[in-house]
Amino acid sequence: MLTLGRKPGYFSFLDPFSPGVWLFMLLAYLAVSCILFLVARLTPYEWYSPHPCAQGRCNLLVNQYSLGNSLWFPVGGFMQQGSTIAPRALSTRCVSGVWWAFTLIIISSYTANLAAFLTVQRMDVPIESVDDLADQTAIEYGTIHGGSSMTFFQNSRYQTYQRMWNYMYSKQPSVFVKSTEEGIARVLNSNYAFLLESTMNEYYRQRNCNLTQIGGLLDTKGYGIGMPVGSVFRDEFDLAILQLQENNRLEILKRKWWEGGKCPKEEDHRAKGLGMENIGGIFVVLICGLIVAIFMAMLEFLWTLRHAEATEVSVCQEMVTELRSIILCQDGVHPRRRSAGVPPLRPPVPEERRPRGTATLSNGKLCGAGEPDQLAQRLAQEAALVARGCTHIRVCPECRRFQGLRARPSPARSEESLEWEKTTNSSEPE
Description:
Elements: E1 2-3, H1 19-42, E2 47-48, E3 60-63, H2 67-78, H3 90-120, H4 130-134, E4 140-143, H5 148-155, H6 159-170, H7 180-189, E5 192-195, H8 198-205, E6 211-212, H9 234-246, H10 249-258, H11 276-306, H12 315-327, E7 333-335, E8 359-360, E9 366-367, H13 372-387, E10 392-395, E11 402-409, E12 416-422
Helix pairs in contact: 1-2, 1-3, 1-11, 1-12, 3-11, 5-6
Main location: membrane
Organism: Rousettus aegyptiacus
Membrane topology: Multi-pass membrane protein
């Protein structure tokens, strides 16, 4: 008899889940990353212009779900840390939501099962047989002094049992105990193995779940009822005992009085990791959510093309281009594609050339574009200010009117002072 011990390992944190669950979790992560990348490329609502007001760059579309970001986004959700990437489209939000629900169940199950492992898990005892017990000295072992087990080891001719007897006989302090209760208490309170009869071993193990049996039986002996020589009741007792054995009555009485019913079966002593039969349903929910997200992305794509302007490219051409971009893992930036021979809604303007319909003020700044009449009016305002002797012209930040700078004589000082003069026209530049 020996106490149940623990044998922690470096990778005990993996025990709450079975190896199959860990493998399916890895596959689920890769599937979510790939589908998120596919859906984000397919839906038009994830393509946006980072500079909608900049001339020459308003037609440049960007997608934040690159291959690296698609792999990183599920990691942030799984670690419950979030990410700076926020889904825009309904389909990508569906993928994110079902993945977050998946991680919520997985993390909760892992935490609960890990707590169970840390509190009630029973690891393998390092000693599996009497030979293992005899070959070590870390755990002391002994038996009842003067009992049948002591006599068995003392008279045994088996080499292992002789070694064990020599150890018990010469060990100081003594490893022998006076009673079964004392031996069990020593087992529970110290590093000690107690050798006793199998019937008593089984009886006490059923009433204290911290005790276990090591190996099999060392010897087999039978119990009998002592009677006087030539007793007339001997045959009667023999027949009655045989009849009880044949009717399985003795086994029923043993289960009734020996089994305490407090401890589980031996095969249930070890805590088991959760398998697919326990949490397989959340994987089914994840797969269904991903399928729904793919259909939503296709509907978003077709809906946008159906309500797009006539200058957009055809459905087949756009679909082929997007699929090619997904397969080749191209970056998340590309210009808006139009049909051949159709002028774009906003023609790209080279940055090195000045836009048409703009005027330059005398301070070198550009005046906003407009109609020819408005441009002529602004040029006339600038010419009027120059005629008044203004050396510089600016746009007032408060009233958005043209102002000219010229020198005026100061009555208090001989030197000249500078001040801004507003034009009489109240037209504001764009």
